[in-house]
Amino acid sequence: MKTRNLVFKTPPVLLQFIQQHGLNFTAASIGISRGALDKALSSSWDSLNRSVIEKICDRFDLDVSDLLKLEPIDFWTPFAESKQCVFVAETISMETPPFADLESVNLYDQQTTSEIRAFLSSAFGVSNFSAFSDITNEGRVINTIKRHNCVVIGSPRSNPATEIILSRYYGARPFDSSEGNRRRVPFAFVWPPNDERGKGSALSIAPADNSRGLGILHKKDGHLIVKVDWIPKHDFSAKIIRNAKDCALIFIIDKPFKTKEIVRTIVLAGYSGIGTLAAAKALIRDFRKLQPIEEGRSVGVVEIRYRKTREAEDHREIEKYYWKLIRGERTR
Questions:
Q1: Sign of the C-alpha dihedral, residues 252, 256, 262, 263?
Q2: Averaged over 313-332, what is the pLDDT?
Q3: Taking the model in full, what pTM does it have?
Q4: CB atoms < 10 A from the CB of 260, how many?
Q5: CA geometry: angle at 316 spanning 312 and 317, to 5°?
């Protein structure tokens, strides 16, 4: 399957007019708003108003082909060319369901694996799938992602490999929650105060610091990118939940740790399991938005809305999801 991105070309006649008269006058001359012109020129649109294209074409005597073109996008190329993908997680199985040992399988992580596996298989013919589960061994984790195309599943709270990879990427020491070390990483997961698994992490805010609420923190502005709804486990099991929020961090690294191999690492780190699953769905739908542009990396955060219709079990259903951060910039 070809993967391409539709972009605005900015023909010479339009560029020259802008240079001579400025953006405000150009927009007024075309008969569109300055915001609509900015949006078209930046190609930062999911959809473009038909009348904007028509008015630009009419004003400068252009055809649609003068304004728009399809550019190849190589987001999945490393996986497609190697026909190989390694899932980095402890609690998944490469078997076909039903699983013989259910206690060893995290069902949300398994569903996430299945989503990615089905997509890569059907779209690009990827056939060699494997699991790497030695997720506490830093040397082996780093060596694995330097040699293979990898999808890392789970937050640092559930997957030590996520802690290792993202901490080391930013020059921080994994599992070191000292303030100076944590400052190196530009984002943080904010966990509940009594959650022991969130302690001892370079990617987490200590329980005493989470007065902002719970979720994923953008350290650049000091605010949560997404504030999640967290329900204690003993209450969660007994509840019917109509509408609640989760979130996920998606992190893409090309040629991690200066490897010479043409490989890509994708980290899908949900605040909880439903967030990780939604991250996989969002990535498959919108991977064009996360194509690394600078420094071989790209960062996104997704907000998830879910419901739980059954008591006494974790049977959550994703209602919708949308981007709150794309390539490190807030969307809304």
A1: negative
A2: 83
A3: 0.83
A4: 7
A5: 145
